Every structure is written in C-alpha cells, then in structure tokens.
Amino acid sequence: MYGRSHFAKTGAAQQWYVRIRAVQTGHYQQSLQYRRQHLCLGIPVVVLSAVVGTAVFSTLNETETPIFVKIILGSTSILTAAIASLQTFLNYDSLSEKHLGAATKLSAIKKEIEEKTIVLTEDQEFTNFIEQVRLKWTSVTDEYPQISDKIWNRYCNQQIKGKFLDFEAVKATHNLKDQP
Q: Which of 54, 56, 40, 48 is CA-nearest to residue 76?
C-alpha cells in the first residue's frame, strides 16, 4: 500500500513531467522555427546563385551586353553573397539541431518518469530516481540553448496552466488520511 509520502513524491514527479513535456514541446517548436528560417535564407541563395551563374556564362559570348543587364547581374550577385553571409552568421541550421537534441533528451527523461512512477514502490528508490531526473534535467538545461520568450509563451505556458497537481486533490482522490 502506498503511503502519503509516495503520493507526494509521485505528485512532484508528475509536475516535473508536465514541465518537461512543455519545455520539450518548446524545443521542438524552436527547432522547427530555426529550420524554416534556415530554408528561407538557403533556398534564395541557391536560386540566385544559379541565375547569376547562368546569366554570366550566357553574356560572355555577347560582345556588347547592355548596361542594365550588367547592373542586374552585379546587384543579384551582391544580394546572393549578402544572403549567404547572413545565413552563415545567423547559423539557424546549427541552432535547429541543438534544440532538436534538447527535445530528444527531454523526451527520454519524460519516458523515464512515466516508467518509474509506475514501477518504483520503495521510497528510497523513488528518491534516488527523482535526484537522477533532476541531474539529467539540469544537464540538458546547461548544455542546450534556451527557448525564446515567444515560443515559451505560445506553446509551453499553455501546457503548464492548470496541469500541476495539488497534493490535497491527490490525497482526496486516493482516499488517504494524514499519517503521523
């Protein structure tokens, strides 16, 4: 039979689960956003590079290329270089991978919480497990970038609101009485 302390601990684990799930969602969303931004810069670079390259070769055979064609080619070439530089500087692809890595690690922690809250019955085992989860979660937080405020407010807050368990509600649900 589970005692009061076990339900208090599993309640804490469930709160952590909700928070980890929210942060995991945030990291997935941040990864998708950076991936889209990477593509929004990368696709024009490829297209413009192809256009400039083709146009330069086609105008090489002509002896008198009109000045407006030269201006357009030069401007397009400069624009292509600027976008490519911006893409390199902003490094959206790498940021996307980092957020995806964080989401993947948080998913593993979340699954472990799901498993252990069902399997572990001894208070000491559960206490050790909670400590391991805290250390893993701290490691992910330290190793990976933070989620932007915009992503946090859009995705994470929605998942957390109203999801934290109140011990009194848990106690009432499981018909527990305060024990000395």
A: 48
Residue 145, Cα to own-chain centre: how many angstroms? 9
Name the pLDDT band for 3 (thresholds 50, 70, 90): very low
Which residue ranges make up each domain of the chain? 11-161
CA distance 96 to 11: 33
Using CA atoms, how far apart are residues 160 and 155, in angstroms rounded to an integer?
9
Read off the amino acid at residue 134. R
**Rounded distance, CA 170 to CA 12, Å?**
11
pLDDT class for 68, splitting at 50, 70, 90? confident
Cα gap 59→66, rounded to integer Å: 10
Phi, psi of 121 (to 5 degrees): -120, -30
> Rounded to a whole number, what is the largest CA-CA distance in the chain?
98
Q: How far is CA 76 from CA 38, 40, 61, 95, in A?
A: 20, 17, 20, 28
Single-letter residue type at 150 = K
Residue whose structure tokens are 């689960």: 17
Structure token digits, residue 1: 């039979």
**Nearest CA-CA partner of 154 in 32, 56, 36:** 32
| pTM of the complete model | 0.73
Q: What does the pLDDT read at residue 174?
A: 37
